[in-house]
Amino acid sequence: MRLSHKIPETPWRARNTWAVRPRMVVPLFGGLAAFGFGEGLLVQSQWGASPWTVFAEGIAKHLEISLGWATALISVVVLLAWIPLRQRPGFGTISNVVIIAYVLDLTTYAVAAPHAVWLKIAYVLGAVLSIGIGSAFYLTCNLGPGPRDGLMTGLHQRLNVSIVYIRLTIEAVVLTIGWLLGGTVGVATAFFAATIGFSIGASLNVMERTLSWWRS
Questions:
Q1: Is residue 189 part of a domain?
Q2: What is the mean pLDDT of residues 127-148?
Q3: What is the pTM of this model?
Q4: Which domain holds residue 200?
Q5: At how many degrees (to 10) do helices 187-215 and 117-141 cross?
Q6: Is residue 215 part of a domain?
Q7: Are 142 and 13 in contact (CB under 8 A)?
């Protein structure tokens, strides 16, 4: 499948990051919920998690709080780092902090960890698909970047370093710290890193094709 290299124009795209309209609520909240659900599935596979969730696992263990609360706490700290970078949050940024953390917690409580290998594989594949679809809907809302994406773009603008290197460095650092704190790193972590870009690109492409068909 051809991957999309741009964010398609959608009926729910906001004019600015605080111009929220009723038609944007379902794509925004639904996309963030899908993202949080995918993160939860990855954790429940017990084969590892995404780098930031590995970091959150480590924090959760040491502070004796839930994974969702640890994720929200990290998001708030990252948002504070936006201040010297002169990044501005949007409605989607705040929604990102709340919804992803809540759904991640809910998923880890409600979805049982599997024992069968085939089911673990299904969890990992489902997680990457869910996060890809959720990211596509969230990105097309244009209501502000997530805390981690804002940190990445802010550092890119301030340091004038390739965004690829910025992202790789940030994720390598949080993954290492999370692993040292006791977070779970495994084959699912590597699979996520290798495939999530393709999942998002494919989801954006399907969305673009569907909207083109709908308009024709």
A1: yes
A2: 96
A3: 0.95
A4: 22-210
A5: 50
A6: no
A7: yes
